[in-house]
Design a protein that fits this description.
Number of domains: 4
Number of helices: 29
Helix content: 40-55%
Low-confidence stretches: 234-244, 269-278, 704-715
Number of strands: 20
Shape: elongated
Length: about 725
């Protein structure tokens, strides 16, 4: 089977995509013996047919001969629009030329014009119909239109109940503002062929070669192209001068409108909607500004929609293409995706599985004044990504939906708006790749959002509950860094640290989730976390938990770090901002049972003296440092000394506390080790982080020191 690459047909701009579909459709319908198929390849849209010659040059001549001499245009008409050529004030030159011409290839077009005029005459219209009259006009026209005109009508408008709706691909029913696509279509046809004889014009051959194979197009028409080619609309800096006009290859315009016909709208009822019907257009969703740096929330409000155009590498027939477009929905959890983020999630979950290899995403955005342009946003490959299922956790308690709605409300603080935008960008990335960096980024952003909501009364009202994340988030985001390991160890302290960091209270969970769900508690006075230093926040956290009688590092052994992870607290190598943001995200997750890869490193003697006082009693008994009947209370004055920077006083007090509690430590030396050069708040922050059981036993097993040294010896 011979193949012919149409290098002039690419997925960007949308005119190139539609042009390819138009060629495939026209050959399939008007040259059925060719048995043509099409596929998207790197070099451009590729046709395959047993009828095409193996020689590329001959195959090009066959295709060009068909379009130049045999192609019969679809009657693309919009008699419901002003400017369509059917009313006294319209430019009707092209329409009249086609209607009065005798070319056989335009016979179907003439029949369509007669049908439209008969409908206009029956209703006695002298100008385009409006409102309810337009709906009546369209209903009657649809009942009497011949099949070719009906194909166009179904692609351009949607009749649902008493309302007329317009698919975004064709503007507002075949026009965009004052630009009527169909009148321009007829004008371009007259540029390409003689309406009386059907013979191609003198320049039609050169234009066709340029349209099909991307060669230079001679003497292009200076006419409007509308929303289909943003790079060709002209404007400032569009030419060598200060301003440039719109240049259009007539074949590009004609073939792209022919390619829009396989797209057809359908009225669907949705149980959750009280509306009479909802527009279901192939692969079309609500606009989302995420995953594209050039869009803002303002663009979302002004945009018409997003459309995700499928790309496929396996050859498919025009019939298969129509079937694909007729089923053109992406499903997510058995529901149709509603916006760009949902569509991307559906792709990751294989909610779209018809041999599609990628989607070219477009947004119909307001640009150049109030004109809409089909703006290419991104190319999304279709591949499964199980990590994308983690996004479901953010939907618990309607957290994600409520948050996104609030961020688009006028009363939303600017900080929350920007963080939600970053969250959506990261969620888009997660649907494509579920690596540690992406999950960590999501955790940090979610933590920042939770903290920002806690400071906003309107935010707490709009988003009343925080999500509960699976343990998989912790394991998936673990990069083995000291910052992540310390944050995960702190977040795993039980009972949860969450009420001490954010003003929350638990709600009994239902379903598969373990642990409680959390709702805002504005009356709570337990939360002590503030913007600023990690050392101060951890100090406040330890102090508050001690005042309330809670074990400052948890009641039972949990996830812990190795001694090497704590070195950054003492040598300044720790990224405290990253650790803080990770902690704010990880407190929303179920604690991980174990984080692998703990490593040992020597720590200051002052830390080793005080660590037993900051260790769960069960762990001290387990390693044999504390007998079952013994107790080791933490003096409140010790915490105060560390927070005030009186490190030696704290170490001395801790040393005395160890001896007074009867711990099995050596009798010599009798004095506490030196704490010279150790910052008290840093030491307190390090002590607040739980140690893993594997690191705790060797760390505390040798509570003896050589006189005058700064570190304890190991037995």
């Amino acid at each position: 089977m011979a193949e012919l690459v149409l290098s002039g047909c690419s997925p960007v701009p949308i005119a190139g995509y539609l042009k390819a579909l138009g060629i495939l459709r026209l050959i399939a319908e008007q040259k059925s013996g060719w048995a043509v198929r099409g596929a998207w390849r790197a070099a451009g849209f590729t046709l395959a047919s047993p009828h095409l010659a193996e020689d590329a040059r001959t195959a090009r001549e066959q295709l060009e001969a068909f379009l130049l001499r045999d192609y019969r245009p679809t009657p693309i008409l919009t008699p419901w629009n002003g400017g369509s050529g059917f009313y006294p004030k319209d430019n009707a030159v092209a329409l009249e030329r086609i209607h009065t011409g005798g070319a056989e290839r335009l016979a179907t077009y003439r029949t369509g014009i007669d049908c439209c005029r008969e409908r206009i005459h029956r209703l006695g219209l002298t100008e385009s119909p409006k409102n309810e009259q337009k709906n009546d006009f369209l209903t009657g026209l649809r009942g009497q239109a011949p099949e070719p005109l009906l194909d166009w009508l179904d692609a351009a408008v949607l009749l649902t109940g008493d309302e007329t709706r317009y698919p975004p691909l064709l503007g507002t029913g075949g026009n965009d503002g004052r630009l009527d696509f169909t009148n321009n279509f007829m004008q371009r046809l007259c540029d390409l062929m003689d309406a009386a004889t059907g013979a191609p014009s003198a320049r039609a051959g050169g234009w066709l070669t340029a349209a099909l194979f991307g060669t230079a197009a001679p003497d292009m028409s200076r006419v409007a192209v509308g929303q289909f080619d943003p790079g060709g609309v002209g404007g400032p800096n569009a030419s060598t001068g200060f301003d440039g006009g719109s240049l259009v290859n007539p074949w590009d315009f004609v073939l792209m409108l022919e390619g829009a016909i396989p797209f057809a709208a359908a009225a669907t009822r949705r149980l959750e909607s009280s509306a009479a019907g909802a527009l279901a257009y192939p692969f079309t969703v609500r606009p989302t500004g995420a995953n594209h740096g050039g869009l803002s929330s303002t663009d979302e409000g002004q945009a018409r929609a997003e459309i995700w155009l499928p790309l496929w590498e396996r050859f498919a027939t025009a019939t298969e293409l129509r079937r694909l477009l007729s089923e053109g929905r992406a499903t997510l959890n058995a529901k149709t995706a509603r916006d760009g983020l949902g569509f991307s999630r559906a792709i990751a979950a294989l909610g779209v599985d018809r041999g599609i290899t990628a989607f070219q995403r477009y947004g119909f955005l307001m640009r150049s004044g109030k004109a809409y342009l089909a703006t290419p946003l991104s190319r999304i490959e279709v591949r499964a990504n199980p990590q994308a299922e983690l996004i479901q956790d953010l939907e618990s308690g309607e957290f994600l939906d409520r948050l996104r709605r609030f961020a688009r409300a006028e009363q939303a603080p600017a900080g929350i708006r920007s963080q939600v935008r970053r969250l959506e960008d990261a969620l888009f990335t997660l649907t494509r790749q579920g690596d540690q960096y992406t999950l960590q980024k999501l955790l940090r952003i979610t933590g920042r959002i939770g903290f920002a909501l806690s400071k906003s009364a309107s935010g707490r009202d709009a988003v009343p509950r925080l999500p509960r994340l699976q343990e998989s988030w912790v394991h998936g985001a673990n990069d083995g860094s000291p910052e992540f390991r310390c944050a995960a160890a702190l977040a795993a302290i039980t009972p949860s640290l969450l009420p001490f960091i954010l003003p929350t209270s638990p709600v009994k969970s239902r379903g598969r989730q373990r642990g409680p769900k959390w709702q805002w508690d504005p009356d709570s006075r337990r939360a002590v976390w503030r913007e600023g230093s990690l050392r101060k926040n951890l100090g406040d956290l330890v102090t508050r938990r001690h005042i309330e009688g809670s074990a400052v590092t948890g009641d039972t052994p949990g996830t812990g770090v190795g001694t090497a992870d704590l070195q950054g607290f003492f040598d300044g190598g720790l990224d405290e901002k990253r650790l803080s943001e990770l902690l704010l995200g990880l407190i929303l997750a179920d604690p991980a049972a174990k984080l692998s890869g703990t490593q040992e490193a020597p720590l200051p003697a002052g830390y080793l003296v005080l660590k037993p006082l900051f260790t769960p009693r069960a762990q001290l008994v387990e390693i044999g440092l504390l007998a079952p009947e013994q107790d080791l209370p933490l003096p409140g004055a010790l915490i105060a000394h560390l927070r005030a920077g009186h490190t030696q006083k704290a170490v001395d007090l801790g040393w005395r506390r160890l001896r007074a509690s009867g711990l099995s430590i050596p009798d010599s030396p009798r004095r506490a080790p030196s704490a010279f050069g150790i910052d008290g708040p840093r030491l307190l922050a390090a002590l607040a982080v739980p140690l893993a059981a594997a690191a705790l036993s060797p760390c505390l097993s040798g509570l003896g020191a050589e006189p005058g040294t700064d570190h304890f010896c190991r037995k």
